[in-house]
Design goal:
alpha+beta, binds coenzyme A, globular, 4 helices, Aminopeptidase, seven-stranded mixed sheet
Length: about 180
């Protein structure tokens, strides 16, 4: 399949449990996105065992809802909806959108947009009235996409991330639902 292939089918699914195949595909896609410079936290892909533990951990956290994007049946991206913990009652109206990525081979098919649209629906179903997210300013495609989808940039942290010894600024966004 080639980038931009109009016949490719993109689906987004909420993950109830991670089987072996799904876990492997998720680790592989995320590793490729990280290697490509994706800015969702990791700087280098972790070792397979550590990465598998991370995703299994996500499934165990009650505040995390994991959605995956599939291109022709293979996981190529994901996003997490993170609910505030129970003691944060004053922030109970807003969720966090985290770990949004699409592997390079799955890009250009609308997966990133679909993941965000579906996580927005999921947030509404949870009763949230706002979604927050942040991103490095250097992630131009993501910045563009978030702004197109109605996320408002309310601030920029000049020292948002430290990448290879250099600080990188980051934008903070909020979208009202
Ligand atoms: C940003 C990213 C998520 C886009 O993934 P994608 O699945 O290719 O995006 P889509 O196909 O859904 O395209 C969504 C929009 O972004 C635009 N877009 C995608 N990649 C782009 C690029 N490199 N430059 C400019 N615009 C781009 C598309 O044209 C599309 O616009 P449209 O819907 O108005 O036509 C993906 O490139 C990525 O994972 N990047 C690295 C990680 C990252 O930045 N994550 C988010 C922050 S943590």
């Amino acid at each position: 399949m080639t980038k931009g292939d109009v016949t490719a089918e993109v689906k987004v699914e909420k993950v109830a449990s991670l089987g072996r195949r799904a876990l492997r595909e998720l680790c592989d896609s995320a590793s490729e996105a990280i290697q490509d410079g994706a800015g969702f936290g990791w700087l280098r892909p972790p070792l397979a065992q550590k990465f598998e533990r991370y995703w299994r951990g996500v499934m165990l956290v009650p505040e995390c809802t994991l959605l995956v994007g599939k291109l022709d049946g293979v996981i190529g991206g994901s996003v997490q909806l993170v609910s505030p913990p129970p003691q944060k009652e004053a922030w109970a109206f807003a969720c966090l959108i985290d770990t949004h990525f699409v592997a390079p081979w799955a890009r250009g098919h609308g997966m990133a947009r679909k993941l965000l649209e579906q996580v927005g629906s999921e947030a509404c179903e949870h009763g949230f009235t706002a979604m927050n997210l942040s991103v490095r300013v250097t992630q131009k495609a993501a910045v563009n996409l978030y702004e197109t989808l109605g996320f408002n940039c309310w601030g920029t942290h000049p020292k948002y991330a430290l990448v290879d010894g250099k600080t990188v600024a980051g934008h903070y966004y909020c979208k009202e639902l």
